Amino acid sequence: MKRLTAITYEFTKTVDWLESTVGHAFADPRPFGYGGPNYAHAAKKPPVPPSGRGTSEAGGRFVIESLKNHIDKLGVTLRTGTPVDDLTIVEKDGETRVAGVVAHNAKTRFEVSAKAVVLATGGFAHSREMLEKYVPQYAPFEKYSVASVGDTGDGIRMALKAGAVPYEDAWVIGLRLTSPDKRLTPTFTTKDKWKDRVFVNEKGERFVNENLPYLTDYVASQKTARAIVDSADAKKAELLKNCRDESLVVGAPGWKSLAKKMGVPENALHDTMTAYNRACETGDDKAFRKPKTYLKPFLKAPFYAVRVVPQTGDTMGGVKVNDKFQVLRADGSVIKGLYAGGEVVNRPYYNRVYTSGTGLGVAYTSGRIAGTHAADEK
């Protein structure tokens, strides 16, 4: 809590720094994410953006453009398309420290010496290996993540190799449910998202109150999850009827015949859907207490079962740092010359809930603090 409080106060300093030093102009604060008060400092398009990009207001990319304009004025060299392969680790005065990086591009291998290195390489949402280690239930769904394609955990791996200690209780931001074929996703979503839908598992049983804000953890915990769809909406039914891939969709005229195609116990699915439709009549969902507002029956055959998978965003994990964002070993000692920010260190700021936009605040602020102390490194 102390660290969370500290970085929250530092957010204000970061906004001031971006405006006064970097020269970035923010739009007026407004509601964002969950709504509520005007607390979101939306990024505003810089005075001279690249041609044809953006409108008057958008997200982090305009802040990046402002930072790029700022470092250009300072004469800083920026190398894109130049992956870092490893950290340079040396012994100096009887002390192990990070003293640069090894990198390459299509033509050249670089060995860059530095008194300090700041890791700002993102999380590991697109690393199947790291997901299997830290958040195994989400590993099978790595390809459905909408996180940056660069979130492959490279910087975290480099830090661990240098002696850093990881957060073992990492988690993944669960965003929404989708079909492996995104064209089918609209067939099981409505104006109420999926609050009035039904999802069943490999046992042919419901496993969650569909009214909950997020269902991804529940879906990821099943061997297989499917959405039940009937033919009340002719367009949706036609789309499902025309799908020939039975790993994505199966259809049948009754619950027992649908269960047989799904490979689940026939009586289980029949009993599940009979009980649910009865709950829609009475307004009393004894199984999961879903509000009456979202109890809508599935009555018109043929019925369909559509494969559902969780779609995720960024990861919450990384390596441990101190208040200066110096990377730490397991005994709490500092790895000299190594700093990190953003998704590489973001686990302490969240506990299973992510508030939209706050990741930008953590990234900007941790980067500012890490960079300030790295510049003072001896």
Outline of this structure?
By secondary structure, the chain is an alpha+beta fold. The protein has helices at 2-22, 60-74, 128-134, 154-161, 216-220, 234-241, 255-262, 266-282, 358-375; strands at residues 43-44, 57-58, 84-92, 95-104, 109-113, 117-119, 171-178, 198-201, 225-229, 249-252, 303-316, 326-328, 334-340. The protein is elongated and about 75 Å long.
Walk me through this protein's architecture.
The chain is α+β, with helices and mostly antiparallel strands and 378 residues long. Helices cover 28% and strands 20% of the residues. The chain has 9 helices and 13 strands. The strands form 4 sheets. Strands 7, 8, 9, 10 and 11 form a 5-stranded antiparallel sheet that branches. It has a 3-stranded antiparallel sheet with strand order 3-4-5, with no helix packed on it. The protein has a 3-stranded mixed sheet with strand order 6-13-12, sandwiched between helices. The protein is elongated and about 75 Å long. About 3% of the residues have low confidence.
